[in-house]
Write a structure and sequence with these properties.
Chain A: Keywords: DNA-binding, Phosphoprotein, Plasmid, Transcription, Transcription regulation, Two-component regulatory system. Chain A: It holds the Pfam family Response_reg. Chain A: InterPro entries: Bact_response_regulator (IPR050595), CheY-like_superfamily (IPR011006), Sig_transdc_resp-reg_receiver (IPR001789). The complex is a heterodimer. In chain A, 45% of the residues lie in helices and 20% in strands. By secondary structure, chain A is of the alpha/beta class. In chain A, strands 2-1-3-4-5 form a five-stranded parallel β-sheet, with helices on both faces. The longest helix of chain A is centred in the first third of the chain and has 13 residues. In chain B, the strands form three sheets. In chain B, strands 6, 7, 8, 9, 10, 11 and 12 form a seven-stranded mixed β-sheet that branches. In chain B, strands 2-1-5-4-3 form a five-stranded antiparallel β-sheet. In chain B, strands 15-14-13-16-17 form a five-stranded mixed β-sheet, sandwiched between helices. In chain B, a hairpin with a 4-residue loop joins strand 1 and strand 2. Chain B contains 20 helices and 17 strands. In chain B, helix 1 runs antiparallel to helix 2, helix 2 packs parallel to helix 3 and helix 8 runs parallel beside helix 9. Chain B has five domains: 92 residues, no CATH class; 110 residues, 2-Layer Sandwich (Beta-Lactamase), CATH 3.30.450; 74 residues; 131 residues, Histidine kinase-like ATPase, C-terminal domain (Heat Shock Protein 90, 2-Layer Sandwich); 202 residues, Ribonuclease H-like superfamily/Ribonuclease H (Nucleotidyltransferase, domain 5). Chain B is α+β, with helices and mostly antiparallel strands. The chains are: A alpha/beta, B alpha+beta. At the A-B interface, helix 1 of A face helix 6 and helix 7 of B.
Chain lengths: 121, 706
């Protein structure tokens, strides 16, 4: 069975690359362009992993993360925050909100794919 | 005793006395006769009295009238005359400039008046001498104070000094301007947010100041060398004030007050947060762009891409490169603006800069530079010191084998609006081309130009045969806001250091130590209840016995109704003068703030108070402070004077009236009258506010009027 991964990011320029890469890696890819839709898709589609941008219109990635962690039914979902917000305070907030990993942009796609494989192993 | 009765008594007394004396004689005569004779006399006289008694009564009446007239004259000469003389003499004791006594009719009184006048003359001469000596002694002290005042005025920082009660005893013009700005501009009537004797707590939260004072006390108790405290506070208009509070300590070490240094950091703070925000935005946007490009490039590494996929990833990279370029351009534009705001540039008139620069060039090179200014009244935003130094250094560099060339300093607006050219010009010398490449002096000068957000270059004007260094410098819209002040305002009153009113109730305090707002209103008529309205309020404040002429309140008011033409001669305010003026609902809050913490004083003030009180319901403002009336106070101080109109009192007390029935000038006259009444009241045992209010309540006029 293929794992489902949700990419939640409002920038199409990163979504194109990420989804291309993940599809080639054999994952089923879902895309959400903002926080509200991301949360709805998490609830409806139950992806195993979410690549979550922090700064999105509507709900921010931090808020989505908090909402997922507040819902016991969604406890199995892994969250990787993939964001340009790189200050120590941002990282602390992301981890505090319950992200399993925090990767700041720019990043190496090779490292990212390794990370994703580990998280889904 | 009522005055009417007092007048009647001396007139009636002689007639009554005559009658009693005659009756007494008759009774005595009757009692001395044997019983039979007495009865006979009565029976004989009785009918005769009944028939012709009218003659006797008429005789008595004539005598009584004559004696009464005589007695009234005597009373006027020997009782009222001396009483008036005594009042006038009392006035003279208190005020050597008061009018001299008039010669009264009995020669003895006239001699007495003459003697008193001579004494008064002597005393005045003595006082003049004394006053001169005292003035000389005081001059030195005043000079020192004025120097301090001048120093404060020149400081670019806002300074306020308060006593322990938080009452302001010194402030400088910058502080006035600062509070003017942060309190949302001018209040009505020219009232300012701060003033001498007013409380600093009106503009800065009491709790903040007390907290800072505790911090200072802790520093002192620990024996620290730096004992100041600082805090940031927001004002009603949302401005941010940075305040440093330091104690004023006497030589003994006791704290007598506090100095507050104030800074409006609203703009700095806003600029700082703007910079921070921009930096964060740029960082995050660049990270995202780099990530997008990096990921796209990584995807391009896959060997088996479809051509469409390959084009898509290339498009992403191109797109992000363009976006980063745009962000960088916007950032650069902002940053050059930022340099302008960050470096402390001052506004300076171009002509002043040229004159100062020419002087410096002369000192550096010994060469008189010609000065050319293309536009009069061109203002620049400059670090003038560095710029002039740079010009001097550049000029010094031009010395060639033939000595110093002739120099011209030239200032003209640049083609780009908001910029000007400042040129250092010398004749082009084809034999010795001007130094190529930046020398050390040039690069230092270029730094200074860049500090202004501008540039510096070397230009050759071959047709005109000139070389010049050209500075591109920012212009300013206009000069700094000119402060037009009619009179030199009082910005300090050091007597307040000693004042501490928190421990005593207002009524127990001596009159000369209190703060007063002396005011007057002009109105459309006399009946506020029937729709008459205030059309002008004028007021001045008295502090520690001194009239503060600089902190005046003067405001015309649009009454929202017509001004009766028949009232215009009384106040001189025509309908067009109140057009566009604020309504009373806007003026009263400003006046209320102006008069807060003071005793109200007016002439026949009950009239003005009725107008103010009728507005209480509409504005919610209560003027509940104590009120004093100069009309009543004058009637207490000079009870024998027939008239207590403002003109009459002013004339008696030697106060000059320039313009009557203008609210501010009437308030001024009332204030001066009030100050001169204070010693007269003191002589009559009226010393405290409580005593003055008590005496006014029981005065003759008060009972007549209320």
């Amino acid at each position: 069975m293929t794992d489902r991964v949700l990419i939640a990011d409002d920038e199409p320029n990163i979504v194109v690359s990420l989804s291309f890469m993940l599809k080639r890696e054999g994952y089923e890819v879902l895309v959400a362009p903002d926080g509200t839709q991301a949360l709805a898709m998490i609830r409806g589609e139950r992806p195993r992993l979410v690549l979550l941008d922090a700064a999105m219109p509507g709900m921010s990635g931090f808020e989505v993360c908090e909402a997922v962690r507040a819902d016991p039914e969604l406890s199995g979902i892994r969250i990787l925050m993939l964001t340009a917000k790189g200050r120590d305070t941002d990282i602390a907030r992301g981890m505090g909100a319950g992200a399993d990993a925090y990767v700041t942009k720019p990043f190496s796609t090779r490292d990212l794919i390794v990370r994703i494989r580990e998280m889904l192993a | 005793m009522r005055p009417g009765l007092r007048r009647l008594l001396p007139v009636a007394a002689p007639g009554l006395a005559l009658m009693l004396w005659a009756l007494g004689g008759a009774v005595l005569f009757h009692a001395s006769l044997p019983a039979g004779q007495g009865a006979g006399l009565v029976s004989a006289l009785g009918p005769a009295l009944q028939a012709n008694g009218a003659i006797l009564f008429g005789w008595w009446l004539a005598g009584a009238a004559l004696a009464g007239w005589w007695a009234a004259r005597l009373h006027a000469r020997h009782v009222e005359g001396p009483a008036r003389l005594a009042d006038a003499a009392r006035l003279l004791t208190d005020n050597a400039d008061a009018p001299r006594l008039e010669a009264a009719s009995p020669p003895a009184l006239a001699a007495l008046a003459d003697a008193v006048n001579r004494l008064a003359d002597q005393r005045q001469a003595l006082r003049t001498d004394m006053a001169r000596l005292v003035a000389e002694a005081q001059q030195k002290v005043a000079q020192e104070r004025d120097q301090l005042g001048a120093l404060m005025a020149e400081l670019r920082q806002s300074v306020v000094v308060c006593n322990l009660d938080g009452r302001i005893l010194l402030y400088n013009d910058h502080a006035r301007g600062l509070f003017h700005r942060v309190s949302g501009g001018q209040l009505a009537g020219g009232a300012e947010a701060i003033g001498l004797g007013r409380s600093i707590h009106g503009v800065i939260d009491r709790a903040l100041i007390e907290h800072a004072r505790e911090t200072v006390d802790r520093h002192i108790a620990r024996g620290d060398t730096a004992v100041s405290a600082q805090f940031v506070t927001t004002t009603a208009t949302g401005s941010l004030l940075h305040v440093v509070l330091a104690p004023v300590r006497s030589q003994g070490g006791a704290i007598s007050g506090y100095v507050l240094l104030l800074d409006d950091i609203t703009q700095d703070y806003a600029a700082q947060s703007r910079r921070d925000r921009r930096l964060t935005e740029l960082t995050e946007a660049s990270r995202a762009s780099l990530a997008n490009m990096g990921a796209a490039l990584d995807m391009l590494d896959y060997p088996d891409l479809e051509p469409a996929e390959r084009d898509g990833f290339h498009a992403i990279v191109r797109d992000e490169v363009a976006a980063m370029g745009q962000r960088l351009a916007a950032m650069t534009a902002d940053a050059s603006q930022e340099i302008l705001t960050r470096w402390p540039l001052q506004e300076m008139l171009g002509d002043d800069l040229l004159a100062a620069a020419a002087q410096h060039v002369l000192a550096q090179t010994g060469r008189v530079a010609k000065v050319e200014s293309a536009e009069e009244g061109l203002w620049l935003r400059l670090d003038s010191f560095s710029l002039i130094q740079a010009l001097g250094a550049l000029a010094g560099q031009l010395k060639g084998p033939q000595g110093m060339p002739s120099l011209t300093l030239r200032l003209a607006p640049a083609a780009t609006p908001g910029w000007a050219h400042l040129d250092l010009v010398w004749p082009l010398d084809p034999a010795a081309p001007a130094a190529g490449g930046d020398t050390g002096v040039q690069s230092a000068a270029r730094d200074i130009a860049e500090r202004h957000g501008g540039e510096l270059w070397l230009e050759q004007d071959r047709p005109a045969g000139l070389s010049f260094f050209r500075f591109l410098l920012p212009t300013a819209a206009a000069g700094p806001e000119a402060e037009a002040l009619e009179a030199r305002p009082e910005f300090y009153d050091f007597d307040l250091f000693a004042a501490s009113d928190s421990s005593r109730s207002l009524d127990d305090q001596p009159l000369e130590r209190l703060s007063y707002t002396v005011f007057d209103t002009e109105t459309t008529g006399l009946n506020p209840a029937q729709g008459d309205e205030i059309i002008q309020i004028g007021a001045l404040r008295i502090l520690n016995g001194k009239l503060l002429r600089g902190e005046r309140f003067d405001q015309l008011v649009d009454p929202g109704r017509e001004i009766p033409p028949e009232s215009i001669p009384y106040h001189g305010i025509h309908p067009e003068m109140v057009q566009g003026q604020p309504r009373i609902a806007e003026v009263l809050p400003a006046f209320h703030a102006y008069a807060s913490d003071t005793v109200l004083v007016g002439h026949n003030v009950a009239f003005d108070m009725r107008f103010l009180q009728l507005k209480e319901a509409a504005t919610g403002l209560r003027f509940d402070q104590p009120v004093l009336d100069t009309l009543l106070l004058a009637s207490i101080a000079q009870p024998h004077e027939p008239s207590h109109s403002l003109e009459a009192i002013a004339a008696r007390l030697g106060v000059e009236i320039t313009q009557r029935h203008n609210a501010l000038s009437d308030a001024l006259v009332t204030a001066e009258v009030f100050l001169r009444l204070l010693p007269l009241l003191k002589a009559r045992g009226v010393v405290t506010l409580g005593q003055a209010r008590e005496a006014a309540e029981h005065s003759y006029y008060a009972r007549l009027r209320y």
